[in-house]
Amino acid sequence: MIFRRRKKAPYSIFQIGFNRCGTSSLAYLFEKCGYKAAHWEKGKIAVGMELARINDEPLLSYTDDYDLYTDLEKVNLWRLPKLKWRYSIFRKYLREIDEDVEQKPPIYAFKYFKKLDKQYTGSKFILNTRNVDNWIESRLKLNTNNNKIAYRSCTCGDNVHESKEELANCWRGEWEEHHASVKSYFSDRPNSLLVFNIEKDPVNKITSFFKRLELDTSFWKKRNPTTEYKNLLDNQT
Q1: Alpha-carbon distance 5 to 88, whole Å?
Q2: Would you state the pLDDT for residue 151?
Q3: HEC states along 106-168?
Q4: From CA 84, how far away is CA 92, in angstroms rounded?
Q5: Are 93 and 47 contacting, i.e. CB atoms less than 8 angstroms apart?
Q6: How many Å apart are CA 48 and CA 1, to the nearest integer?
Q7: Is-contact 205 19, C-beta < 8 A?
Q8: pTM listed for this prediction
């Protein structure tokens, strides 16, 4: 993100839901309110977290200091050799793992929430969610009428499924497993996890949970939305 940091949150905040669930909107809200938010960052944060995990180091060892971390994934790892000259963390990752990344599955670092919770005591987590069918449709739309964006990745790898139905079924299983794991882990700690449905919940659910941060709801804006929930985001004030 591009805004200047004016405040420092008293704890780290990690968005641990999937992409296409308001990740850009969350980052925009926090940054407009003066906090430093990371959104995807070309996958550099996810790669850094994966390298730290492999080396048994704190997960944020190779990451700049942020208040909010969102969209913590890196797909299409086969592209890293082409991008390593742009980003030092890619070079370090490729050098230290010393493996062929051609067939490696994507890095979904938001799934390391248990380690993050243990390593960064007092952190808060956001499980951003929505109707699973709408989420699948939103992801599939990235693969149509757009030559620059394609999202065919899943835990099995990149471009491994022969049909969009197979890919959608894989996503659905991944979604259900991850949501169940997050909710189970935080079941007795409601003050650590905010479950936020971007299609149903008002933005004041976020501001109430993070009351100490004094977030301004007027900065809740749609960012990269697909058509099926543009109006929903506009009405969540």
Answers
A1: 24
A2: 82
A3: CEEHHHHHHHHHHHCCCCEEEEEECCHHHHHHHHHHCCCCCCCCCCCEECCEECCCCCHHHHH
A4: 9
A5: yes
A6: 18
A7: no
A8: 0.91
12 DSSP 8-state letter: -
Q: In this structure, how many other beta carbons lie within 10 angstroms of the beta carbon of residue 176?
A: 11
Residue type, 204: N
pLDDT exceeding 90 applies to what percent of the chain? 78
Q: Enumerate residues 6+ apart whose C-beta is below 8 A from 61.
A: 48, 52, 55
* DSSP SS3 for 51: helix
For 189-227, what is each residue's pLDDT tens digit?
999 999 999 999 999 999 999 999 999 999 998 777 654
Assess contact for 179 and 16: CB atoms under 8 A: no
- How far are the Cα atoms of 129, 136, 140, 216 from residue 133, in angstroms, in the given order? 11, 5, 11, 30
Calculated CA dihedral for residues 12, 17, 21, 26, nearest 10 degrees: 0
Q: What is the DSSP letter of 105?
A: P
Structure tokens at 183: 């909710």
What is the C-alpha separation between 207 and 178, in angstroms, rounded? 25
Packing angle of the helix pair 88-97, 44-54 (nearest 10 deg): 30
How high is the pLDDT of residue 28? 96
